[in-house]
Design goal:
The protein has 13 helices and 16 strands. It folds into four domains: 145 residues, Uridine Diphospho-n-acetylenolpyruvylglucosamine Reductase, domain 2, CATH 3.30.43; 68 residues, Uridine Diphospho-n-acetylenolpyruvylglucosamine Reductase, domain 3 (2-Layer Sandwich), CATH 3.30.465; 91 residues, Alpha-Beta Plaits; 81 residues, Alpha-Beta Plaits, CATH 3.30.70. Strands 13-10-12-11-15-16-14 form a seven-stranded antiparallel beta sheet, with helices on both faces. It has a five-stranded antiparallel beta sheet with strand order 5-6-9-7-8, covered by helices on one side. By secondary structure, the protein is of the alpha+beta class. Bound molecules: flavin-adenine dinucleotide. GO terms for molecular function: (R)-2-hydroxyglutarate dehydrogenase activity; FAD binding. This is D-2-hydroxyglutarate dehydrogenase, mitochondrial.
């Protein structure tokens, strides 16, 4: 703390020197909830902090003018310290707020390598960030970690028209084959385009679910199927859930209220307990349409489906909005408690009904929607403001319920800061301990996305 010039000499705001400072007001800016640190996770003034609360700041170095000079040399004009520009990267989709003072926007693997090599040698913590749409507090720093954004890494490196593979630099996470830069700056190239390769351990898989704690993904390969010639979307109202739903996206009746009220999206069919969105993509429009209509006819005759509508072209987006904008609609209720659960398909909705019964009228909404085909339920509960008593009723109930039925407490959103300490509900102690060993091996100083993914007893 005394070794380096104070942050004010950098023309940037001062930071809490250690630990967790109580939330203080800063001048609110548009899009900001106007608090100084990760208040959302801090547990407020409650005597026992929630397992989601941030742990104490670890003794990482603080950024100095010399550090900024180094970064500016590698990525001139892309080393950002302007608080107004930084703000968008310091606030995530759920309005978790962090207080980083440096945003780096590399464009190449080589730049990422140089940055990480330097940060590792200087013991500077780094928070990798892509689109910043994560929902578990993983993409924004907890304290003053440097934000390493891949937003400018958006180049197509090449396209192989035979295999249909695109190689890209990587602002996205949804792909399988990649180049990573390790914490010390070494570049690990797994960008093989082979479908089959059994030569030793498949190291790229290690990085799936690692949330930027093991390395920074800088390039990916995406396998692209041919663009379908015909797309049909059906929006159906179901009177019951059955195994046929496994191929469908779904939302329940309770989701319609916020969609109608807050986003003015009207239900295009009659009121039903459940709705499913199905999409067909094929090469023969007439054939595909015929097939879909035949399916609908059969489903309605057998009373599995009460009502439905089918769209092509322009109306497709409108139908998909009813599923895709549920998350957004719920934010207008006030505060949303979000759970992203994997369950055996036959259990998938039982959690919603049990939670409703458990909470009674204490919640504004308890809704279920998600990717039923993957056994993935998004259970969302809302209240007008964040309510610690309500939260205490939801957690650990939701996690215990999920563990009882061998589910996963995070199907696709990862663990981030918010859920790191709940990992034991879904993973055996030995598995978690091995994750800790891997982290120590690949990032011995722990500079990569600290406080995230792994539980506090391993950090
Ligand atoms: C409205 C809405 C709908 C959503 N629907 C879905 C859905 O259907 N399915 C789904 O899976 N998710 C969904 N999500 C969650 C989220 O958007 C996805 O998980 C998304 O893939 C996160 O990507 P991102 O680039 O925004 O990552 P970020 O939020 O920026 O980061 C997520 C995590 O990855 C790390 N990270 C980012 N970039 C890198 C990198 N290059 N190398 C290493 N680590 C990195 C970050 O440090 C962080 O821990 C939804 C979110 C919203 C807001």
């Amino acid at each position: 703390l005394t070794k380096y010039p104070s942050p004010s000499t950098l023309g940037i705001r001062s930071l809490p020197s250690h630990g967790w400072s109580p939330p203080q007001k800063v001048t609110p800016r548009p899009g900001s909830c106007g608090v100084r640190c990760r208040e959302l996770h801090a547990g407020g003034e409650r005597p026992t902090p929630s397992p989601a609360a941030a742990p104490e700041r670890r003794p990482f170095s603080r950024v100095t003018p010399e550090d900024l000079a180094f970064f500016s040399k590698i990525i001139p004009d892309r080393t950002i310290t302007d608080p107004d520009i930084l703000e968008a990267s310091n606030v995530d989709w759920l309005k978790s707020v962090s207080f980083s003072e440096v945003l780096l926007r590399p464009q190449t693997t080589e730049e990422v390598s140089q940055i990480l090599g330097y940060c590792n040698s200087r013991n500077l913590a780094v928070s990798p960030q892509g689109g910043n749409t994560g929902l578990v507090g993983g993409s924004v720093p907890v304290y003053d970690e440097i934000i390493l954004s891949t937003a400018l890494m958006n180049n197509v490196l090449n396209f192989d028209s035979v295999s249909g593979q695109y190689r890209l630099t990587a602002p996205i996470l949804c792909v399988c084959i990649c180049v990573k830069v390790l914490a010390d700056g070494r570049v690990l190239d797994c960008l093989a385009t082979l479908r089959k390769d059994n030569t030793g351990y498949d190291l790229k898989q290690l990085f799936i679910g690692s949330e930027g704690t093991l390395g920074v993904i800088t390039a990916v390969t995406i396998l692209c199927p041919r663009k379908p010639k015909a797309i049909n979307v059906g929006f159906l109202g179901r009177c019951m859930l059955g195994e046929i739903l496994s191929a469908f996206e779904f939302l329940d009746r309770e989701c319609m209220r916020p969609l109608n009220t807050h986003l003015k999206l009207a239900n295009p069919i009659t009121d039903c307990p459940f709705y499913v969105v199905i999409e067909t993509s094929g090469s023969n429009p007439t054939h595909d349409e015929e097939k879909l209509h035949q399916f609908l006819e059969e489903a309605m005759t057998s009373s599995q489906v009460i009502d439905g509508t089918v769209a092509t072209e322009a109306k497709i987006k409108a139908l998909w909005s009813l599923r895709e904008r549920v998350t957004e609609a719920l934010t207008h209720d006030g505060f949303t408690y979000k759970y992203d659960i994997s369950l055996p398909v036959e259990r998938i909705y039982q959690l919603v009904t049990d939670m409703r019964e458990h909470l009674g009228d204490r919640a504004k909404s308890v809704v279920g929607y998600g990717h039923v085909g993957d056994g993935n339920l998004h259970l969302n509960i809302t209240s007008p403001t964040k309510d610690p008593d309500l939260l205490a009723s939801i957690e650990p109930f939701v996690y215990e319920w999920t563990a009882r039925f061998q589910g996963s407490i995070s199907a696709e959103h990862c663990l981030g800061l918010k859920k790191r300490n709940y990992i034991y509900y879904s993973k055996a102690s030995l598995a978690v301990a091995l994750m800790g060993n891997i982290k120590t091996m690949l990032d011995p100083k722990g500079i990569l996305n600290p406080y995230k993914t792994l539980p506090d007893d391993l950090q």
